[in-house]
């Protein structure tokens, strides 16, 4: 293991650049004052950070998964606009004492997730620029760029009464994983993935389920392809702060009421129940409530929510979870749901 | 004064958004999952961070000037590609205990500098997105976007033997200001600027000169318009790490030798000599050497260096400082100059 302080900046950059993949849209890549790329469409742009001790702790830190998560939270925002990702700029503040192998793992995670999005959506997603600075705290600040045809952007404000509400991917799993991490659960999630031969990992059923929830917190895997299949949506949003909050944003921006059906959430509650039982023991009613809370209010799985005129059969990857009505706010089986969600700065 | 933790995220965002200016290129601005903007040209993108205790300290912190500097270092990189700025994405990690007025001053500084670049280059430069997170350390991570016509980008690699080397703006002043700050000099630079009536500030001549050097460190003012007048350049670079380093990058990328003439630097050395004398006292030879060191190796003024077939009269704002020859590396009056410059990670 070699620390960044022993290598010096130019060698660190050299090692990182070896992880870069180019793309046919790149005219001038990393290494000049700025990158130049060809975008034959309107430009989509978004920026999202991960900050040490706010979004993750050194105790749980898995460098490769941190890279996956940083890329995923940005790529999700591009894809739910209905756009194709175009490239990433990665700014990284990182301690001098970091091992270069860990930094490389971080970049490998970013590159792998960008590559996965590219495969799912049929495009190339290179890292086209960024910055690297030493710092006492780890901060990963990514800007994701995308391309979209004229007037094709899917915003939060187009939902209409009578639309059905659809969900792609999962919700609640990352929040369950976070509570498991706070409770000090084993987080060697590498054991949760099947090995190269496809052999199932050597863990008990429950351990495996819990490890997979933690893995969703550490390295969410948004269903980018599903966003690409929802071109008919009247509104779409990335569930980063929780279903209640993000659906509340759609309701508010569109001037509608979003009614969720509890029965439609059961498939999402069941997989996180073992974690709630693990944390609460014999309190069965409490466990059910905790699990429902994760599903309603937990972000970071980067599930996608969309509204659309009802489908007979929704696009692959999407399930119906409710409908838009006249009014405002969000309700569960008719009971109002608070839409406050996660807030930085303590309120 | 109200702390961010007392306001909560949504009110903080509301206050910040009040500083945003839109632009005619903005189709969907801040407030959705991502921004959508129209770029009728190739896209230029670059990202640069300022990190607390690495790029500035809490002691010197002037929030408005920090915003100016964060914007300037990014806009410079866009402009030296020969591009017009298109917009900024601002990701900000900031302590909970920060006063909202300070955060607003930071955004006002960013908006003011983006506005200045827009006026100089005849374009609009809105903030189109970003992220805000609480953090133990302040990190300002900006991505600047620009637009440029096909094949119009000015890279580092086009310099040819026989080209003259030109400089726009200043070099060495920010480095002198930094050494003054480290030495504990007075940094109430607000007194260095004329007041609204144009009355000269009430400071002695030397104090004023020193305060202005510190102001260049805290809030550099790149000559964006000059970059716009250098369309004929064979190569151009933003001097962010020092003339020796950045000219070394051009020489290396272009496969040429860059010869600087000491006599051409005297106009740049003279204004920083008072700072060197202030720091070194009676050591006149030492002061001259320190001043030359700042000019040769100091970054952060964001002066621009360009190479071009020699002009009879260079474009307004540009001065000749040397010439490109066959060979490699950088020399001063024929003596090789090390091109190592500033390095993160200690080497």
TrEMBL record, chains A, B:
Mg(2+) 3 binds at residues 33, 77, 238. Mg(2+) 2 binds at residues 48, 77. The keyword Protease does not apply. Its EC number is 2.7.4.16. Coiled coil: none annotated. Mg(2+) 1 binds at residues 48, 131. Residues 31-147 form the PurM-like N-terminal domain. Residues 160-272 form the PurM-like C-terminal domain. Mg(2+) 4 binds at residues 33, 46, 77. ATP binds at residues 130-131, 156, 240. NCBIfam families: thiL (TIGR01379). Belongs to the thiamine-monophosphate kinase family. Reaction mechanism of ThiL seems to utilize a direct, inline transfer of the gamma-phosphate of ATP to TMP rather than a phosphorylated enzyme intermediate. This is Thiamine-monophosphate kinase. It comes from Brevibacterium marinum.
